[in-house]
Amino acid sequence: MDATPPQPDDTSGAAIANARTLGEALTLAERWLRSVPDSESAALDAQLLLAHVTGLARTTILAYPERPLAPEDAERYAALVTRRVAREPVAYLTGHREFMGLDFLTDVRALIPRPETELLVEAALAEVRARLAAPTSPAPVVADIGTGSGAIAVALARLEPRLATVYATDVSADALSLARENAQRMGVAERIRFLEGDLLLPLPEPVDVVLANLPYVAPRDAPSLPDDVRRYEPSLALYGDDDGLGHLRGLFAQLPGRLAPGAAILLEFGYDQRAAVVALAQTSFPAAGIHIVADYAGWDRLAVIRTGEL
Ligand SMILES: C[S@@+](CC[C@H](N)C(=O)[O-])C[C@H]1O[C@@H](n2cnc3c(N)ncnc32)[C@H](O)[C@@H]1O
């Protein structure tokens, strides 16, 4: 049973709607956001939402608190803060999230791109560039499995223009539609082929580099997720079977016959799943080199599995 969600408070919402300056609105919003559980980002959330409503930079808002706030902006701001108090994610309220320095569209069709996934994109760029640098080797074929908003595939195609073919698969038609919008917006739609289906099954040819940030939360751990994740982001993007590793097991089972010689596989996983992921990789590829990368908080989050020499 869910705990009772925070109840939007008409008094606080009305006070924000009546604010006449940037500073007044910001102070009221921050105070209200701070009063609800899981409110570590109250100040930042209040600033991001006010920047979204006014079209001003956060630095401008902080530097000029005395600037007037138009009544219609105050009302829109009050409505967004009310939704944030009910734990709707900021990226769904603004419709945007920055990832790898790029502005991605975000909505309930897909998971919001996470900062830790930038590690995977950075490692993928290094892997792809090493392959491009090898004499006589053609551009590698890359596949992003479970593409969601397209964050990984789109960032990679945008940041490495020499990549000719990136496949991006997802079982969710909704997620793929958002990913296509992001690819269009970033000018890389012609180089990404979006394919609907289970994991690697839709791929039409063997690939050199497999990238995947698949759902890895065990359903039993759902109650420990923050409200904004559990109540708003798509379940299909969060939960793996049993211990959370069902999708990775499925991926390893589908890999034979779908990899080019010397392929690499880059996998994001949960902070406590390193041993299980290494065991899965070693069972499927006993001779592979496996390199583990930690995130900036020190948790192991990424496996780079090289199945053979480049
Ligand atoms: C954790 S989200 C990651 C989204 C995106 N790659 C990112 O890093 O932000 C996992 C994605 O995998 C997709 N997915 C779940 N099961 C799948 C399956 N069997 N085959 C392909 N995609 C799947 C979900 O729809 C979701 O978009």
The CATH H-level homologous superfamily of the largest domain: Vaccinia Virus protein VP39
> Which stretches of 5+ consecutive residues score pLDDT under 50?
none
For the largest beta sheet, what order do the strands appear in spatially? 5-4-3-6-7-9-8
Arithmetic mean of pLDDT = 94
Small molecules (ligands, ions, cofactors) in the structure: S-adenosylmethionine
What this model shows, in words?
With 310 residues, the chain is of the alpha/beta class. The chain has two domains: 78 residues, Ubiquitin-associated (UBA) domain (Helicase, Ruva Protein, domain 3); 210 residues, 3-Layer(aba) Sandwich (Rossmann fold), CATH 3.40.50. It has 13 helices and nine strands. Strands 5-4-3-6-7-9-8 form a seven-stranded mixed β-sheet, with helices on both faces. It has a two-stranded antiparallel sheet with strand order 1-2. A hairpin with a 5-residue loop joins strand 8 and strand 9. The chain binds S-adenosylmethionine. The site of S-adenosylmethionine has 24 residues, from helix 8, strand 4 and helix 11. S-adenosylmethionine binds next to helix 8, strand 4 and helix 11.
How do the strands and helices of this protein lay out in sequence?
Layout: H1 10-17, H2 22-34, H3 42-54, H4 58-63, H5 71-85, H6 90-94, E1 96-99, E2 102-105, H7 117-133, E3 142-145, H8 151-159, E4 166-170, H9 173-185, E5 192-196, E6 207-212, H10 227-232, H11 235-238, H12 246-254, E7 259-268, H13 274-284, E8 289-294, E9 300-306
Parallel strand pairs: 3-4, 3-6, 4-5, 6-7
Antiparallel strand pairs: 1-2, 7-9, 8-9
The chain binds S-adenosylmethionine.
